[in-house]
User: What shape does this take?
Amino acid sequence: MKEEVLSDIINVENLVYKKTPLMTDNILSYCPGCGHGTAHRITMEVLEELGVWKDTIGIAPVGCSVLAYEFMNVDMQQAAHGRAPALATGIKRCWPHKVVFTYQGDGDLAAIGTAETIHACNRGENIVIIFVNNGIYGMTGGQMAPTTLPGMKSSTSPYGRDVHIMGNPLKITELVAELPGVRSVTRQAVHTPGNVRKAKRAIRKAFENQLKYKEGLNFVEIVSNCNSGWKMTPVHSNKWMEENMFPYFPLGDIKVDGEIVNK
Assistant: This one.
């Protein structure tokens, strides 16, 4: 009897959610409450839904994102720290029919990889860049990152970021939006169900643009928490993110089809 009831419950028409096969069965090693796992999942769901996963190549550089190839069940390459856009450029130019994306953190993309990011965007490489911004170096000890907020404490700014000494946080997403080679730029989050849906739509649009057009880079920023690096509980870190990160890095589309829509 129990088997019959269970069989009826798990019929395809009764399924509300099913894990995408493009996520491996490896246990996620990210800190509890981190947004990386959700960002991984929705990226893989998009590739599955678009039916392009067999022709997809992802690039994971150094930082927390280096672990992406353990969880993303598509062809992956590892890049040196900050060099993912350069590697993606080479792959896409060698195999133009491939769907190519990078998955990078703020320390990687906006610090050591600033040059690679800017020049790939300026050239209009036909790739997708997924940029997870948590305002800190999460893997290597909680150091100040280019996106660390003014006054925000880190292991290398224990009294808070002093902009007179350390400079202002780098709004790399707004910066690349100004480059003519970039087709679309958006900033999203994944800390609530509603935001997850918006982020997934944004990622889907980025990949659809890559498939539809022969040139133009598509850039998706995801503002996330780092409760370990911020020394907060997951719940507190999400609230802190809403109250502090979002005012400085406001969510929404910045550039659509080559036109700036939000400055």
